Amino acid sequence: MRKKIIAGNWKMNKTVGEALAFAEALTPLVAGKDSVDIVICPPYTALYSVSKAFEGTSVATAAQGVFWKTSGAYTSYVSSPLILDAGAKYVLIGHSETRGRFGVAEEGLTDDLLKAFGETDAGVNVKAKAALAAGLIPIICIGETLGERKDGATDVTVADQVVKALEGISAELVSTQVIFAYEPVWAIGTGEVCAADEANRVCGVVRATIESRYGAETASAVRIQYGGSMKPDNAAELLSQEHIDGGLIGGASLKPADFAAIVAAAAG
Ligand code: PGA
After folding, report:
1. Which pLDDT value is given to residue 103?
2. Which residues pair with 41 in a beta bridge?
C-alpha cells in the first residue's frame, strides 16, 4: 500500500502574513489525518515562516523549485541546502510553469522569453540528482500539452519525461525518495479536469515506464500524484484510482477548507 500524498502548490501567492493565517487555520482541520502525507509549497519568501508554523504538526513543506549547485555566485537561485535549512522536506521540480509550458502571447511577449528561463528535461534531471544528494525529496512534474494530446503523443511525451528525469538515479532512490506528479498542462488552472480513468491510465504509463527501467518492485513503490484542477468535489474519484497516489493542487490549495477537504478525501 502506497501512502497518499496531498501537496498544495501556492505558486506566486500569499504574503508571509497570509501564509501564517493559512497555517493557523489548516492545522486543526487536518489534525489526526496521519494516514496521508500533507505538504504545502509556499513561495520562497514564506518558506521559513510556514515551515516554523507547521513544526510539530503532520504538515511538511516544499520549495517550488531548486538550483542544482549547492552554493556560490548564482544570483537569484536557491540551492537544496538552503531549502533544507528553511525547513522544507520536499521540492517541486519540472512544474509545467517552470518548464515554461504556458502561453505569453496575450502579453505581447514571445516564446523566446519562456525558453530563456524554462526548465529542460536535462535541467530537471540535474536538479533531481542535486536534491536527492542533499536529502530533499523531489516531486517531479510531467505532463503533455493540449497540442501533444491532440497529436496522440501523450504517452510518448510523458514516458520520455520520466526516462530523462531519472537518468543516472539508482533504483533504491527511485523507490524510496522520488515522487512523480502527472499534470496534463491543459488541465492546470483551467478548471478542466482530466477524467479519472484517463488520469489513471497515464499514471499507469508512468509506472510502466519506471518498471521497464527499474523492475516491478521499484515501480510499484513509487508514488504518483495527479495534478490539474483537483478540487474537493472531484478529489475522491481521482484518488480512488489504482495508480493515483495523491494530488498536487494549485487553486484549491489556497483556501484551508478546500485543501483540508481534499486531504480528507485522501484519508478515505
Ligand atoms: P491547479 O494547479 O490545481 O490550479 O490546476 C495544479 C498545479 O499546477 O500544480
Report:
1. 61
2. 9
235 lines ligand 1 (CB under 6 A): no
Ligand 1 center–CA 160 separation, angstroms:
22
Higher pLDDT, 79 or 97: 79
Query: What pTM was estimated for this model as a whole?
Result: 0.96
Mutate to test the pocket of ligand 1, among 229, 238, 262 (most ligand atoms within 8 A of CB): 229
Report how far ligand 1's centroid is from the alpha carbon of 141 (Å).
Answer: 11
pLDDT band at 250 (very low <50, low <70, confident <90, very high): very high
Residue 254 vs residues 7, 21, 119, 164, 191: alpha-carbon distances, Å: 11, 11, 25, 32, 15
Check residue 4 and give left, alpha or beta (phi > 0: left; psi -120 to 50: alpha).
beta
62-248: which CATH number, 3.40.50.720, 3.20.20.70, 3.10.450.50, 3.40.50.150? 3.20.20.70
Ordered by start, the domain boundaries in the chain are 62-248
**Active site residue ranges:** 95, 183
